[in-house]
Design goal:
- The chain is an alpha+beta fold.
- It contains six helices and 23 strands.
- It has helices at residues 2-33, 98-122, 127-160, 165-190, 195-220, 266-269, and strands at 37-43, 45-61, 64-68, 73-78, 85-86, 91-95, 223-225, 230-234, 242-243, 248-253, 258-265, 277-282, 285-296, 302-304, 307-316, 328-345, 350-352, 355-362, 365-370, 372-376, 380-385, 392-397, 410-413.
- The strands form five sheets. It has a six-stranded antiparallel beta barrel with strand order 2-11-15-13-12-16. Strands 3-10-8-5 form a four-stranded antiparallel sheet, with no helix packed on it. It has a four-stranded antiparallel sheet with strand order 7-6-4-9, with no helix packed on it.
- Helix 2 runs antiparallel to helix 5 (195-220).
- The protein starts with a helix and ends with a strand.
Amino acid sequence: MANSGQSRLITIVSWFFGLLLIVFAFFLVRNLTREKVEVRVARASFETLSRTVSTNGKVEPVVDFPAHVPFPSVIQQLYVQVGQHVQAGALLVQLNDADAKARIASADAALISAKVALRDIDQGGSFDDRNRFQGELSSAKLEQSQARTNLETLQELLAKGAASSGDVTAAQQRVTAADAAVKNIGARTTQRYNVEDRSLAQARVQDAEAALAAARNNESNVIIRSPIAGTVYSLPSLKYDFVPAGVNILDVADLNRLQIRAYFDEPEIGRLAQGQPVTITWDAKLDEQWHGHIERAPATVMAYGTRNVGECLISVDDARGELIPNSTVTVRVTETQHSNVLSVPREALHTDGAKDFVYRIVNGKLKVTPVQVNLVTLNSVEIVGGLAPNDQVVLRAKSPETELTNGLEVKPIL
């Protein structure tokens, strides 16, 4: 009976180990034959990361001379063409001077009239007025003399009883009237104009002098010269064109000194600062780049169409005459740049709440690895903790349906 029980135990143990061996073999074969998940990978490496922001801007000259027409005229002669470089003082345009000469003649006549009016006030009237007043004064004095002589004669006759007191009274009234007439005419001669009249006449003279000076200045502007050395970049008018007053007929600018006026959306302007480097591209010359820096960062927010933006002035550091004023360019401002930092593609970074992590490949399996990040750009992430150089991280599974999990066996592919 003992031998029978022992044999049964040995049989059970043998079956158990046999079954265990079968299970082990099953999982071993399954593990060796199972297809691993293919994943796209990258390695942590050192590179220079930059965070940039882009927008459009308009090119403007720093030193510019817009040639405006001072008065309506006809272009008599053009001495330059678009693209021509000119020196300071170079002759640009000559306008027809007929209108300018007419304005000078009119202003000169107005000045002469104003001066004559002032002289007449200072002299008590015009020559004709003075002659008329003098004649009136002479007649009044003659009447005064005759009235006094007649009064004296009647007073003598009254004393002899040869004249009545009524005759003497009438003669006295005539003398009084003659004296009043002489006094009135004298006042009209010397006090015809007051201080206000002379001040007004003086102001009219000054206005006429200013108008004459302006007319003569306009005549001098018939010939337009460039006050700066530069390039003619705009010339919309042609010879013999009529141009109204104030119209801009050409522009000269130093194309080696340019700036760009750009507008950035409100969420971006807080990261802009004076001196930040800028890269400039122009669709008309896609194979070229220019460089500059922020000269003036946005100081306020304003409405620009449907956007809230900040205005930024950008100096072009390497303008060589190729950029044209008023052209629209693309500017890319480098807000932050970190050199030679450990980074991984941004696609490898995952976030769980406030924690950042990547899937690192360790012995063919995924391992959730917490990381500390700093600068995040459009394509890359700066890693400041959690990874070592050349660590292999997963970007994504080849199959979109596959979910990445900790411990998943994977097959890296490029």
